[in-house]
Amino acid sequence: MSQSFPLFAPLQFADRLRNVETSAIRELFKLLGKPGIISFAGGFPDSAMFDVDGIREAVNAALTHEPGAALQYGATEGYNPLREQLASFMASKGVRNLAPEGLIVTTGSQQGLDLLGKTLINPGDKVIVEGPTFLATIQCFRLYGAELISAPIDGDGVNTDTLEQLIAEHQPKFVYLIPTFGNPSGALLSLERRKRVLALAVKYNTLIVEDDPYGDLYFGDAPPPSMLALSDSVPGSRDLLVHCGSLSKVLSPGLRVGWMIAPPVLLANATMCKQFSDAHTSTFAQATAAQYLQSGRMPGTLDKVRRVYAERAQAMGDGLRQHLGDAVEFVQPQGGLFVWARLTGAGGKLSNGNDLAKRAIEKGVAFVPGAPFYCANPDMATLRLSFATADVAKIAEGIERLGAAL
Ligand SMILES: Cc1ncc(COP(=O)(O)O)c(C=O)c1O
């Protein structure tokens, strides 16, 4: 006798999916296809800035010198020549005593965050994040069942007095910060506060995660050293610090090359989880990145992207001051890809970011309202404007349109 199966068995998804939803930002992106829209909505670098010649040479060099390694399965921890290059890249940024074995290569820094979720978060664990913070981090940690606590920020990054109170009250599994030109805030954590955060890590025996994809994108003077570089000056803090880096914003996000530096036992557990996840980051991409870093082109590439983004950030700031005046307040970014602005409602103008986003699309300009970047108590008056992908003339035009939408 033949057995019959229902044609459409209902799919039973994991309970953890109830903790997350597709982002409001993705919904907005559907509107971006409209012809003539100037978009400040993206969170990515300008593809016109990619060093295509340099990457082509790196691909050729990888295939010429190490074709077997570049096309074969590789070690989960990462391709050793790349780990060596990344260790010296970090050394050039003031990180002492980092052996190549002290880091693992991840598939973008996004995978580093996922591995932290996998290795550290039990359902119900508390994790402190900045309010606002990177949306994918909120979603990723929630997927593992984290209860997120929001620590307020200002132009100097997270408020360390409040952070101390929150750590003392909640005893979080860890604290996640983007200290240098944060996404979305663009904020730069001051040197004094960096040291205070490291001291808090030691005082409360709390793990700190420093996510740093934007630190190399500074416009004038270099920002204060990363917390990883500073950890030498705060005894005990290095053992309580995780640092995630990425080539995405400075070289190419398509390479999907990031890295994670962490205490050895945490790196070992993250490596184990990575084995079950993607086995290793693409060896082809890693060999390409290694050749690129070895070629010595990186400093020139960094100079170029810093110069171009600095001009665009300036154009956006000038435009906002000219066309939105006191209807908006913001700190002129000193690096990164974003202006984080707040509608003041002055002169009876709009004071809600969602409302302005809708009107702005009608006027032909797009940005992301700030509310989804908060894990709690969203500030509805906020907006994130990326100056990365439009040139100076388009930025001026787009901000003028934004002023007309207010
Ligand atoms: C703060 C932050 N962390 C991590 C990432 C992920 O970058 P990637 O996985 O491309 O390295 C991003 C990308 O937008 C980001 O803004």
Structural summary, described in words:
It is a single chain. With 406 residues, the protein is α/β, with parallel strands linked by helices. The chain folds into 2 domains: 20-50 and 300-405, Aspartate Aminotransferase, domain 1 (Alpha-Beta Complex), CATH 3.90.1150.10; 52-296, 3-Layer(aba) Sandwich (Aspartate Aminotransferase, domain 2), CATH 3.40.640.10. The protein has helices spanning 24-29, 52-65, 67-71, 80-92, 108-120, 135-143, 160-170, 191-204, 227-230, 264-277, 283-295, 298-323, 353-363, 392-405; strands at 38-39, 103-107, 126-131, 147-154, 157-158, 174-177, 207-211, 241-246, 257-261, 328-330, 338-343, 365-366, 368-369, 382-386. Strand 7, helix 9 (227-230) and strand 8 (241-246) form a beta-alpha-beta unit. Helix 4 packs across helix 11. It is globular and about 60 Å long. The model has no long low-confidence stretch (mean pLDDT 95). The chain binds pyridoxal-5'-phosphate. Residues 43, 108-110, 134, 178, 183, 211, 213, 246, 248, 253, 258 line the site of pyridoxal-5'-phosphate.
**Helix proportion range:** 40-55%
User: What is the CA-based Rg, rounded?
Assistant: 22 Å
Number of helices: 14
Strand order of the largest sheet: 2-9-8-7-6-3-4-5
Show the helix and strand layout.
Blueprint (H helix, E strand, L loop, with lengths): L23 H6 L8 E2 L12 H14 L1 H5 L8 H13 L10 E5 H13 L5 E6 L3 H9 L3 E8 L2 E2 L1 H11 L3 E4 L13 H14 L2 E5 L15 H4 L10 E6 L10 E5 L2 H14 L5 H13 L2 H26 L4 E3 L7 E6 L9 H11 L1 E2 L1 E2 L12 E5 L5 H14 L1
Parallel strand pairs: 1-12, 3-4, 3-6, 6-7, 7-8
Antiparallel strand pairs: 2-9, 4-5, 8-9, 10-11, 11-14, 13-14
Helix pairs in contact: 2-11, 4-11, 5-6, 5-10, 7-8, 12-14, 13-14
The structure holds pyridoxal-5'-phosphate.
